[in-house]
Design goal:
homodimer, four-stranded parallel beta sheet, 14 strands
Chain lengths: 416, 416
């Protein structure tokens, strides 16, 4: 494992001892999300990137020497991470860039990138002897927590999910299948979020809420490690990632930050965050040079529910990720997001949920705006499986050719 | 690659030169599915199982020396196979067996085991310079062909899917997203199947139809290789697999057959096929000692649509698989299948579609009937991702606890 040196607030930069704070910065409150930082000089002396790359473990746990978990800890057994990373020649040609790759994180055990954070949080909970992990979510984070929890068993760990009572029944069904306790709160998501956090503090449950628990980032950073390792530590110029609460782009940023501190990569990629136009507070804050602390709640409306967030919980880290890597934020319309689903599937063979396909539309926009240059190499983080939202995918395509049951009719239909 | 020695009919045992026949046995017709056989003595002299196990390739293509594909062939780029294989201690205890494992083939690129067959068929098509692959299916096989096709690109390969016009729109949507040509035939699945095969013969398209193309089995056999390799070539006593058309159990059987011929495993596991009660012709044929050639079409009704088949297309190989491994066929009710979805998810962390979860109910039945003994070790092949059919999963669980938005109400709800 990597011994934590300190926790550091992403807003006020105050530093805390590893066990002094569990969630956010006591000084800044909920906006003060914490970075988990290591003694990089010591790690650099002790670790060898080639040894790590030689690990036979085909999961995020191959990076255990860089993760805040004891080496002999009980790890959740599901295979999280080491998702496929494909070179995509047709996507490269379509965009007119030097090279393009896609990382299919929809092939994580519960179908999304969020499994990385849940696996890390569950591992931490087990290590600390905590018996309950709770979260407020209706989407991928909840499914990830419920699924990873099920893999270690209710005897070891109970998962409690707070959802607004209005959440779609199909999304709730997946949580119940995994055996999570599901509380349908008769109020908004924000109220469910706050109640979850308060119950965690009161009952000493571990809170997995996005933007609250600093270790979600430590799970998510492994995707950056995997991209770097897959390319022989020669990182792409640009990494594209869709952004709702901002925790995934924060995780990717942290991963490249770690590797750069270790001297394992020579530079960090520019991170380009893609938001839906109807939910793009980070795009505007970035354009206006606004600080995270000054951002105000807004209404959010987009078909890409996984990135719908009026006041992104991890806005501090997300803004910093783009600023310190000299990246950008771009917004794309719901129509562009829908069209991106079949476009990306046909160029790569990967079927994405709307929030995930948004990165393709975002790359087109970033090329127009000069944030991506034709000389750039670009990696796309595909965050969620298309099977998560087939109904939206249905809106993105027309309906096949109806044919009478005869060879003649088929021949005629195909000539058209 | 492995040079094909001969093709051999599973019914009449006639043998053909590798290029003499493309689909089924000319003597037996559609029921005469063919085995692709190799010169096992020559392979045994040339190959080393430890060298194969040392391959860095994390996909089914690590077994290229045992597959009927040229080593320098263009292979579809998606990561098919090498799906997770989990030891499942709680499932072991629940069943009261010596050991249990689950193989999560729902984490293949399009979410099902069928990707193995489609990857093999697409690789064969590319190698032979064929530009169109067609299939009749509404389910996992169609999605697999469309997805694997999309990964190589329409410039290289076009996929044409024949579906009955009554197929669910969501299933059709996934095919269209991948860019397949979808023909909605105004008739039954069987008519669509026959029209597809006739068009393939007429147009020299490659036909992927289950039970027609002998190479689907050659793709599916890789799951057996992976199970054997994961256990250090010490295979389980029993392998459980759900059965509709019978092609998956045939593939598993072929994989263990190959390994046994090579002398890489000392014995073959008993294969236990699980059917839904409303679609269980193989259970009855096996119980009655009937030959595949004598089976007649029946009506099939089950909620587990992936294993609904009134006259299983690969009945010859499926019956043989169970008979020659001294396995069994068992039937389980739709209610048992539904209940198996959450049971399996909670015991293993894997969320399965109904047809896939059926293996858990089947194991319970097999234990009652003495087909599995407490001293046995059992591997479960989980063939399809739960996200493929969330609607059915919804029927398997009750709906969470509705709570007023207060800490008091939450505390009270959790005490119950």
């Amino acid at each position: 494992m990597a011994s934590i040196l300190k926790l550091k607030c992403a807003i006020c930069e105050c530093e805390y001892a590893p066990d002094a704070v569990t969630y956010t910065c006591p000084r800044c409150g909920m906006i003060g999300t914490l970075d988990v930082l290591y003694d990089y000089v010591a790690l650099r002396a002790r670790l060898d990137r080639d040894l790590i790359a030689a690990s036979p473990l085909q999961s995020m746990w191959r990076y255990l020497p860089l993760l805040p978990i004891e080496t002999d800890a009980v790890l959740p057994p599901l295979r999280v991470g080491m998702t496929p990373f494909y070179h995509a020649p047709r996507l490269t040609a379509d965009l007119g860039v030097r090279a393009a790759w896609v990382k299919d994180d929809g092939l994580n055990p519960t179908g999304s990138f969020k499994d990385r954070a849940s696996a890390m949080v569950v591992a931490r909970a087990i290590e600390k002897g905590i018996r309950v992990v709770a979260t407020a979510s209706t989407g991928n984070a909840a499914a990830a927590l419920a699924g990873i929890g099920a893999s270690v068993g209710r005897e070891v760990l109970e998962t409690i999910i707070f959802v607004p009572a209005s959440a779609p029944e199909a999304k709730i069904a997946q949580l119940l299948v995994y055996g999570a306790t599901v509380l349908l709160i008769e109020d908004t998501y924000d109220v469910a979020f706050d109640l979850c956090f308060q119950m965690c503090l009161e009952q000493s449950w571990y809170c997995r809420n996005t933007g609250i628990n600093p270790f979600t980032t430590e799970g998510k950073k492994t995707a950056a490690y995997e991209i770097a390792e897959a390319l022989g530590w020669d990182v792409p110029d640009v990494v594209m990632v869709s952004v709702g609460d901002g925790n995934i782009i924060a995780g990717i940023d942290k991963g490249f930050y770690d590797l750069h501190q270790l001297g394992w990569i020579e530079r960090v990629p520019r991170l380009i965050g893609v938001q839906a136009q109807g939910s793009s507070p980070l795009v505007r804050a970035w354009q206006a040079g606004m600080s995270a602390a000054d951002m105000q709640p807004e209404d959010a409306h987009t078909i890409a529910d996984s990135i719908s967030a009026g006041l992104p919980r991890d806005r501090a880290k997300a803004l910093r990720a783009v600023r310190r890597t000299r990246g950008a934020f771009v917004a794309v319309s719901d129509a562009e997001i829908l069209a991106a689903i079949p476009a990306l599937a046909r160029l790569t063979g990967v079927f994405s949920e709307p929030a995930c396909a948004a990165v393709y539309a975002g790359a087109k926009r970033a090329l127009e705006l000069g944030y991506i240059l034709p000389s750039d190499s670009v990696a796309f983080v595909l965050t969620g499986n298309g099977l998560k939202d087939v109904r939206r995918a249905q809106e993105s395509v027309a309906g096949g050719v109806r044919v009478q049951p005869s060879l003649d009719a088929i021949r005629r239909a195909l000539e058209k």
